[in-house]
Amino acid sequence: MMPLQDFPSSAHIEIHVQAEAFKPGDELDRWCALSAGAGAVASFVGLVRDLNLGDPVSSLHLEHYPGMTEKALHSICEQACSRWLVSSLSVIHRFGDLLPTEPIVMVMASSAHRGDAFAACEFVMDYLKTQAPFWKREQTHSGPRWVEARETDAKAAARWEKQP
Amino acid sequence: MITVRYFASLREALGKDTDQFSYDDTLQTVGAVLEYCRAQSSLHAETLASTKPMRAALNQTLAALEARVTDGDEIAFFPPVTGG
Description:
The complex is a heterodimer.
Chain A: E1 12-18, H1 24-34, E2 40-47, E3 51-52, E4 55-64, H2 68-83, E5 88-94, E6 96-98, E7 103-111, H3 114-131, E8 134-140, E9 143-146, H4 151-158
Parallel strand pairs in A: 1-5
Antiparallel strand pairs in A: 2-7, 3-4, 4-6, 4-8, 5-7, 8-9
Chain B: E1 2-6, H1 8-14, E2 18-21, H2 30-38, H3 42-47, E3 55-58, E4 61-63, E5 74-78
Parallel strand pairs in B: 1-5
Antiparallel strand pairs in B: 1-2, 3-4, 3-5
């Protein structure tokens, strides 16, 4: 759908940057209870890959920039809330040591309209991928390696640039 | 005094996460600070070479090389991010 332009937003925003594991089902239950009047909740969960570039990944270390991470995620959520009718928006992102298939990131958006909730989730993920200061270091059978940024992620974020 | 922080592969290659420099008016932009960092050692020059994809932040917000630096600021250099 076409993004709506620059709503003044009083949306509720929650950012959780944490080393602890989380359970997406529990988080979604909590968010639905919190958003009971909203009408719709869309969510996205990202899982740690067990295979990357053809190599099995045995573990993942996620470095981040404490302080900037929270600031960047909050700014991304504020942008989403100014573009779509979203009543509340949450990002949970882990750092530290993770195992393959563990949840690494979760975005939840509440809205009266499913289109706005879906769009806000997708926008937050696309911007998070290119703007939030996290760096993945994979452990593979041939040793550790830093994951390189992907051109497809930059393209995914660029498509949200506002039309003049 | 300004603080320069390094993350991920840059931090690892340099073997440290922070440099601190006295501020003077030759360090007025993020780009000038980057040049100053490159001049610290051959390891800095190699690690922070312009041929490598790199991002910068000024006071914990992504910034362009032209962004204005003042005394007390925190600048960071790091590779393109790979979260999510």
